[in-house]
């Protein structure tokens, strides 16, 4: 595991946690969460690993829904924040500092579900992580993971060509979408902004990969794809006009063969 990436998340931990407001950013709430929830199905009584849990909102949510949740993250600071938040709400989750590239704290295939929400696009070790998810799942166990859609990455080399601002939402209109350098698998860095518009202390590393790399890595590590989803916003909020035109997220559901 790259120390640089661990340090990025450690330094950005508070800024990142500040973006997650209850059930995540508006994009999480309006687009991603409903899709992930549908793909996971009934979690009651199931052993669920939240791999790369961030400040732990999904871990808490699925624990409230009756899952027995273990949650790992490479950032000690984010795990401390997760522990505090779950204590505050009296929700039981086993939070651990651990690494999806090599999950040291899990020795046996004990999970029914692995959920990895917006994590695999931030790690250099896609295949190792998938192998680890396969190892810790029981036979027939389910993996659900999400990424920002690699064919329509709003911020990478392909991006929206912008027009004027929508007077209602103050959002800039997307005129057309440039898709470019899709086949160049590479790391790139971006600085995120806090809600107040301040720049995060450190950049965040992203690892652009094609959809075929994700799909073939799944089958190569012993998973069988059950569903591939490109979720659309659930409501009709004009804020999400662009996300109604091209998919923002890609979500994969697979079973351990
Ligand atoms: C974009 S955030 C997503 C967090 C959370 N799943 C969510 O949906 O809010 C990516 C998370 O992956 C974590 N992460 C990055 N590399 C990791 C690794 N190798 N092992 C475990 N967690 C990692 C980061 O610390 C961060 O919390």
Q: How would you describe this protein?
A:
With 257 residues, this protein is of the alpha/beta class. The chain has a single domain (3-151, 209-256), classed as 3-Layer(aba) Sandwich (Rossmann fold), CATH 3.40.50.150. It has seven helices and eleven strands. It has helices spanning 3-19, 26-40, 57-64, 76-88, 126-136, 211-220, 241-245; strands at residues 47-51, 68-73, 93-97, 111-117, 137-148, 159-165, 172-178, 186-190, 204-208, 223-229, 249-256. The strands form three sheets. Strands 3-2-1-4-5-11-10 form a seven-stranded mixed β-sheet, with helices on both faces. It has a two-stranded antiparallel ribbon with strand order 6-7. The chain has a two-stranded antiparallel ribbon with strand order 8-9. Helix 3 links the parallel strand 1 and strand 2 (68-73). The longest helix has 17 residues, at 3-19. The mean pLDDT is 94. Bound molecules: S-adenosylmethionine (SAM). S-adenosylmethionine binds at residues 1, 5, 9, 20, 24, 52-54, 58, 72-75, 78, 99-101, 117-119, 122-123.
Key features of this structure:
alpha/beta, 7 helices, 11 strands, 257 residues, Rossmann fold, binds S-adenosylmethionine
Structure, briefly:
This protein is an alpha/beta fold. The chain is built from 7 helices and 11 strands. The protein has one domain: 3-Layer(aba) Sandwich (Rossmann fold).
Instruction: Report, as a whole number of angstroms, the end-to-end distance.
Output: 27 Å
* Name of the top-level CATH class: Alpha Beta
CATH architecture: 3-Layer(aba) Sandwich
Tell me the name of the CATH homologous superfamily: Vaccinia Virus protein VP39
Reading side by side through the largest sheet, how are the strands ordered? 3-2-1-4-5-11-10
In what range is the share of β-strand residues?
25-35%
The overall pLDDT average reads 94
Q: How many individual domains?
A: 1
Ligands (ions, cofactors included)? S-adenosylmethionine
- Listing every helix as H and every strand as E from the N terminus to the C terminus, the arrangement reads HHEHEHEEHEEEEEHEHE
């Amino acid at each position: 595991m790259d120390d640089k990436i661990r340090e990025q998340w450690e330094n950005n931990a508070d800024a990142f946690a500040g973006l997650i407001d209850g059930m995540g950013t508006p994009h999480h709430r309006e687009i991603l969460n409903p899709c992930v929830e549908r793909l996971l199905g009934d979690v009651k009584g199931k052993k669920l690993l939240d791999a790369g849990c961030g400040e732990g909102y999904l871990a808490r949510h699925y624990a409230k829904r009756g899952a027995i949740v273990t949650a790992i993250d490479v950032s000690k600071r984010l795990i401390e924040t997760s522990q505090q938040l779950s204590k505050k709400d009296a929700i039981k989750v086993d939070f651990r500092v651990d690494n999806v590239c090599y999950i040291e704290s899990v020795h046996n295939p004990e999970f029914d579900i692995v959920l990895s929400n917006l994590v695999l696009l931030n790690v250099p070790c896609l295949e190792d992580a998938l192998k680890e998810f396969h190892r810790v799942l029981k036979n027939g166990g389910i993996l659900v993971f999400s990424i920002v859609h690699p064919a329509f990455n709003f911020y990478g080399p392909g991006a929206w060509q912008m027009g004027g601002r929508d007077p209602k939402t103050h959002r800039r209109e997307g005129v057309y979408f440039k898709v470019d350098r899709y086949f160049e698998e590479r790391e790139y860095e971006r600085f995120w902004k806090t809600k107040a518009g301040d720049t995060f202390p450190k950049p965040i590393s992203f690892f652009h990969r094609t959809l075929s790399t994700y799909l073939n890595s799944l089958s190569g590590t012993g998973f069988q794809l059950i569903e591939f989803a490109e979720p659309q916003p659930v409501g009709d909020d004009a804020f999400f006009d662009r996300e109604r035109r091209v998919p923002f997220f890609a979500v994969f559901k697979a079973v351990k063969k």
